[in-house]
Amino acid sequence: MRHEELMGWLRALVQGFSDILWISSITRRIVDVVPGADLPRSGPMTLRPQDLVQPDTANEL
Questions:
Q1: Helices in the chain by DSSP H: which ranges?
Q2: Cα four-point dihedral sign 24, 29, 30, 31
Q3: Is 42 inside a domain boundary?
Q4: pLDDT digits (tens, 9 = 90+) for 1-60
Q5: Is residue 61 part of a domain?
Q6: Which residues contact 38 (CB under 8 A, 6 or more apart)?
Q7: Domain range for residue 19?
Q8: Residue 24 resides in a domain
């Protein structure tokens, strides 16, 4: 393999990694900004009291 080919492949590999990092940082910013998207990134999902929808009991009486 010639030196120019090797440098081309290396450049493409580095560009791919930087694209992946850029996309993940944009995704992280969207998750931080969008309300309701604050789900845990790992581990079991936990419900907070404000996440539970209270039924309308006034009409059931």
A1: 3-33
A2: positive
A3: yes
A4: 788 999 999 999 999 888 888 888 887 777 666 666 555 555 555 656 655 565 565 555
A5: no
A6: 31
A7: 3-51
A8: yes
Contact status, residue 31 vs residue 37, Cβ threshold 8 Å: yes
Terminal CA-CA length for the chain: 81
Cα gap 37→9, rounded to integer Å: 38
- Is residue 37 within 8 Å of 30, Cβ to Cβ? yes
Domain count, the chain: 1
Q: Which pLDDT does position 28 carry in this prediction?
A: 77
Which residue type, as a one-letter code, is found at position 9? W
Residue 39 lies in a domain: yes
For residues 27-46, b (16+ Cβ closer than 10 Å) or e, as one string? Answer: eeeeeeeeeeeeeeeeeeee
